[in-house]
TrEMBL record:
<protein>
    <recommendedName>
        <fullName>Malonyl-[acyl-carrier protein] O-methyltransferase</fullName>
        <ecNumber>2.1.1.197</ecNumber>
    </recommendedName>
</protein>
<dbReference type="Pfam" id="PF08241">
    <property type="entry name" value="Methyltransf_11"/>
</dbReference>
<dbReference type="InterPro" id="IPR011814">
    <property type="entry name" value="BioC"/>
</dbReference>
<comment type="function">
    <text>Converts the free carboxyl group of a malonyl-thioester to its methyl ester by transfer of a methyl group from S-adenosyl-L-methionine (SAM). It allows to synthesize pimeloyl-ACP via the fatty acid synthetic pathway.</text>
</comment>
<dbReference type="GO" id="GO:0010340">
    <property type="term" value="F:carboxyl-O-methyltransferase activity"/>
</dbReference>
<dbReference type="InterPro" id="IPR013216">
    <property type="entry name" value="Methyltransf_11"/>
</dbReference>
<dbReference type="GO" id="GO:0009102">
    <property type="term" value="P:biotin biosynthetic process"/>
</dbReference>
<dbReference type="InterPro" id="IPR050602">
    <property type="entry name" value="Malonyl-ACP_OMT"/>
</dbReference>
<comment type="pathway">
    <text>Cofactor biosynthesis; biotin biosynthesis.</text>
</comment>
<dbReference type="InterPro" id="IPR029058">
    <property type="entry name" value="AB_hydrolase_fold"/>
</dbReference>
<keyword id="KW-0808">Transferase</keyword>
<feature type="domain" description="AB hydrolase-1">
    <location>
        <begin position="2"/>
        <end position="223"/>
    </location>
</feature>
<dbReference type="GO" id="GO:0032259">
    <property type="term" value="P:methylation"/>
</dbReference>
<feature type="domain" description="Methyltransferase type 11">
    <location>
        <begin position="300"/>
        <end position="393"/>
    </location>
</feature>
<dbReference type="InterPro" id="IPR029063">
    <property type="entry name" value="SAM-dependent_MTases_sf"/>
</dbReference>
<comment type="similarity">
    <text>Belongs to the methyltransferase superfamily.</text>
</comment>
<keyword id="KW-0489">Methyltransferase</keyword>
Length: 513
């Protein structure tokens, strides 16, 4: 069941990063940017009603809601409003009423809240730095956490949204909502929280004995950063887990790419990707043309990127459920905003999918699986989630890709500058050993042309296609090396242009007994 994550004030969906690997073992994950925060567009009118309506629009038919701080308060209101859609509720460091009154003293003092809001209106940047200090204040790892959080890029907020969200936070009152809540809930507070007093736990429990209320010792408001392992232990006990997948040993000597580095690179490239992705769109169109008709099925676009294939897949599959998955959270956020499709959005590693056995009928993936370093583990996973007769249609890059760039760099130094991709023999063997029958394999050689090596490099950077292999140069490339590269690449020049070859495999396979 999808787990929908709602962040707190002053943050965006990146605040969930420490929890994501563990959460993906519990179910598909949809990380939301609140309107006006992160990559999400602001609302014309920002208040509780419009905000809940906007969140309701992206809720799956059934889901688990997990909210932190302001996000927890919004998640509680959504659970009360949509008890059939919200199957379980989890709140982290979320009070029922953020600002204290005579009947609810265990909350932030009104004068303190007013002073903070006034300070933010007058000086947003310095107040956000102070906020970062407040969310780790009192934690057992306070100094280390503060250093870590200050190294993170601050979440973007549209003009005026920060003030509007603070005003909303001060006005929210979920006491009556909580008292009548019927959705199973787990509410986790932090012992050292400087914003939401842990002493409110008995008051919450007294309002609704059916809800689970607990306190984590030694932790501050930033629970996801403070104690992700402890949090996951509590979540695992509360939520039904996706069946565990047996680990497949890595091939000895296999190049170990950094998946987080790959994800970060593609997240950063989300906004520029489509402007340079001519080849990627052409390959996707060719792949989509090979798909069989399906009806009332579950489709997975694996490595969906900016979502180019999603509208066509939705049109192609009648009455079907569409899953959009990518390793890069930034790509998913961009796709969700740009593509008008009804899909469940999932942060997922293709080699360790967060889906149950035999739960997907058709997997489609265009130019994404080449980033997986262990083909056998990849295809074992894909076979696991497909039933007998389920289909896999994908395109991927072969080892002749960027052969000119690789040859040119080889004459400059001994470092690895160009990604290596699996050859046909290795992919065929891995597919067959995983239990697939290959029913079509087509190889296509595409050539793109550039005016200079710099132009080619800029295009690769805009795609997020950075070198992810070990053995690369530990420092920046110097001017002399670049001049040598340009001279070496120039031997391939034709009609005053430099070629860049792409070897594309189009593969369709059927899950066998």
């Amino acid at each position: 069941m999808p787990i929908v994550l709602i962040h707190g004030w002053g943050n965006d969906s990146h605040c969930w990063q420490p929890l994501l690997p563990g959460l993906l073992q519990l179910g598909p994950v949809i990380a939301v940017d609140l309107p006006g925060f992160g990559e999400s567009q602001p609302l014309p009118v920002f208040n509780e009603s419009t905000l809940l309506d906007a969140l309701a629009d992206i809720l799956p038919d059934q889901c688990v809601l997990l909210g932190w701080s302001l996000g927890g308060m919004l998640a509680l209101a959504l659970a009360e409003r949509f008890p059939r859609r919200v199957q379980q509720l989890i709140t982290l460091a979320a009070n029922l009423k953020f600002v204290a009154d005579e009947c609810w003293p265990q909350a932030m003092a009104p004068a303190v809240n007013h002073a903070f809001n006034e300070a933010f209106a007058a000086s947003p940047d310095s107040t956000r730095k102070r906020f970062t200090s407040l969310i780790v204040q009192g934690d057992e790892q306070e100094r280390a956490l503060l250093k870590t959080l200050r190294q993170q890029a601050p979440a973007s907020m549209a003009p005026g949204v920060g003030e509007q969200a603070l005003a909303l936070l001060a006005s929210l009152d979920n006491r009556e909502t909580f008292a009548h809540l019927v959705v199973p809930g787990l509410h986790i507070l932090a012992e050292q929280d400087a914003l939401v007093p842990a002493a409110v736990a008995p008051q919450m429990q007294a309002l609704n004995a059916s809800q689970q209320v607990m306190v984590i010792d030694g932790a501050a408001h930033a629970l996801t950063w403070s104690c992700p392992k402890t949090l996951l232990q509590h979540l695992q006990r509360f939520l039904p887990a996706v069946p565990a997948v047996p680990a497949v040993p890595a091939v000895p000597g296999a190049a170990a790419r950094s998946k987080q580095r790959i994800a970060n690179a593609f997240s950063r490239a989300a906004g520029s990707y489509d402007s340079v992705a001519t080849l990627q769109r052409d390959v996707a169109d060719a792949l989509l043309a090979t798909l069989p008709s399906v009806d009332r099925a579950t489709l997975l676009d694996l490595g969906c990127g900016t979502g180019y294939c999603l509208p066509a897949l939705q049109r192609h599959a009648n009455n079907s459920r569409l899953l959009a998955a990518d390793l890069a959270l930034g790509m998913l956020q961009f796709a969700r905003q740009q593509r008008a499709v009804d899909a469940d959005w999932v942060v997922a590693d293709a080699e360790n999918l967060p889906f149950a056995d035999q739960s997907i009928d058709l997997v489609v993936s265009s130019l994404a699986l080449q980033w997986c370093e262990q083909p056998q583990q990849l295809f074992n996973e894909l076979r696991r989630v497909l039933p007998v007769g389920g289909r896999l249609h994908f395109s991927t890059l072969g080892p002749a890709t960027l052969k000119e760039l690789r040859a040119a760099w080889a004459s400059v130094d001994d470092y690895v500058h160009v990604n290596d991709f699996s050859d046909e023999a290795l992919l065929r063997t891995a597919l067959q050993q995983a239990g697939f029958v290959i029913d079509n394999w087509t190889t296509d050689i595409r050539t793109l042309w550039y005016g200079s090596v710099v132009e080619l490099s800029r295009g690769l950077k805009a795609l997020g296609a950075h070198n992810s292999n070990p053995g690369q140069s530990p420092g920046l490339t110097g001017r002399q090396s670049l001049r040598q590269l340009e001279a070496a690449y120039d031997i391939f020049r034709s009609d005053n242009l430099l070629p860049a070859t792409y070897e594309v495999f189009y593969i369709s396979a059927i899950a066998a007994n």
